[in-house]
Specification:
Blueprint (H helix, E strand, L loop, with lengths): L4 E7 L2 E8 L4 E5 L10 H9 L3 E5 L18 H14 L5 E6 L1 H12 L4 E7 L12 H9 L4 H4 L42 H14 L2 H7 L2 H7 L12 E6 L3 H4 L3 H6 L2 H5 L3 E7 L6 H4 L1 H12 L3
Helix pairs in contact: 1-13, 2-3
């Protein structure tokens, strides 16, 4: 870990922190919620040892990167803009892209807006959902999951939620009795793949910044829907590999398995090369199964 360098750069009007290690073709890692660049620590060490330059920023609002106050500063256009500015500032033309959770959503957007900057994509947990022109996302979520669904709760500007980011996502979300078998009751314990040192790192960063910035991503769902009307019907045309755990709640949302297995996902992502469903693996798969995920990434990017 001491080999990983930490740097700051001005992008799109904010100061961005990013971690970096290695030399060679660039792999850009995009973290999710409630995570930081640190979620990619295992993959960065492994992939860099194979002759790649690994870069993992703290996204806008996270960790040591600036966190504008207003939620309207957290649209997909802002976040992708930050990343494009990062590539430009580092004089990087095209990179390999790896994303997870919200990082997967942002990676889909980056491939949608600027496919010219991406060689290949390895995305995890969250499938590409094409824009539905007939209904706003939050309205749809309220209809399907109810007002207690976590994304619906996050729409409240000052919401106090006990975030246990170090445990499985399967009991982070309140989605109703039909998912009751996906939850674990308290007392909550640190899983074997997450150490006290890891917890201390995350806690120190969130203690300093709070959750306003990360929550603002969720508050932009409808705004993203409005701003991205011009991309309605657009497809992802970047070579893609998708990874998900079979006990990840995102994989068990209504309709997702059918979407993946029934060909809908492939139609939306025509260059989808491979889907890997990992048995017995939860949401934080890159930390839960670090070596397996590292191998999947390396095996895929070496093809392009």
């Amino acid at each position: 870990m001491e080999k990983i360098q930490h740097k700051y750069i001005k992008v799109n009007g904010i100061n961005m922190h990013y971690a970096e290690i290695g030399e060679g073709p660039v792999v850009l890692f995009i973290h999710g919620f409630p995570e930081l660049w640190y979620t990619w620590r295992h993959q960065m060490l492994f992939i860099s040892s194979k002759g790649y330059r690994c870069i993992a920023p703290d996204l806008r609002g996270f960790g040591d990167t600036d966190a504008p106050l207003e939620h309207t500063s957290y649209t997909a256009l802002h976040i992708v803009g930050d990343l494009v500015c990062l590539l430009d500032s580092l004089e990087l033309d095209k990179v390999y892209l790896v994303g997870h959770d919200w990082g997967a959503i942002i990676s889909w957007y980056l491939c949608l807006f600027r496919p010219d900057r991406i060689k290949a994509l390895v995305n995890m947990s969250v499938v590409y959902n094409p824009r539905n022109p007939w209904v706003k996302p939050v309205k749809y979520m309220r209809h399907v999951y109810g007002d207690d669904f976590y994304i619906c709760r996050f729409q409240v500007k000052f919401v106090y939620i006990h975030i246990l980011f170090f445990i499985s996502f399967k009991y982070l979300i309140l989605v109703g009795k039909r998912f009751a078998n996906s939850f674990n009751p308290p007392p909550y314990t640190i899983p074997s793949w997450f150490t006290e040192k890891d917890l201390d790192y995350f806690a120190s960063k969130y203690r300093a910044t709070g959750f306003r910035g990360p929550f603002n991503y969720y508050r932009c769902f409808d705004l993203n829907w409005e701003l991205c009307a011009a991309w309605t019907g657009s497809k992802i045309n970047v070579p893609t590999k998708f990874l998900v755990g079979d006990i990840d709640l995102t994989y068990n949302f209504p309709g997702i398995k059918k979407y993946i297995e029934g060909g809908g996902f492939k139609r939306s992502v025509p260059s989808l090369k491979e889907v890997v469903v990992m048995e017995g693996v939860g949401h934080f798969l890159n930390q839960e199964k670090p070596q397996e995920i590292s191998n999947h990434i390396y095996d895929f990017i070496t093809k392009f």
